[in-house]
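User: Let's play a game. I give you a shape written as tokens, and you guess the letters that built it. Ready? Here's round one.
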């Protein structure tokens, strides 16, 4: 299927030429796999912000819609 509105890769540097998309987006994010919980949570929250921004850019989400706001930092 496709083309998709957007395809996002995160820090791997790979292109996805087999996946047809109007936009190919590369988010340079460190791999959180072996990070301590605080740093892992920071990356998780950064991804949530980026997804929210992309949904707004694509017109899928109203900028005023708070239902997909990034999570609050962990205590």
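Assistant: Ready! My guess for every position:
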């Amino acid at each position: 299927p496709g083309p998709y509105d957007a395809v996002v890769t995160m820090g791997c540097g790979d292109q996805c030429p087999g996946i047809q998309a109007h936009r190919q987006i590369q988010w340079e994010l460190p791999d959180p796999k072996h990070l301590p919980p605080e740093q892992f949570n920071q990356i998780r929250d950064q991804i949530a912000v980026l997804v929210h921004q992309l949904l707004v850019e694509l017109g899928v989400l109203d900028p005023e819609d708070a239902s997909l706001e990034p999570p609050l930092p962990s205590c």
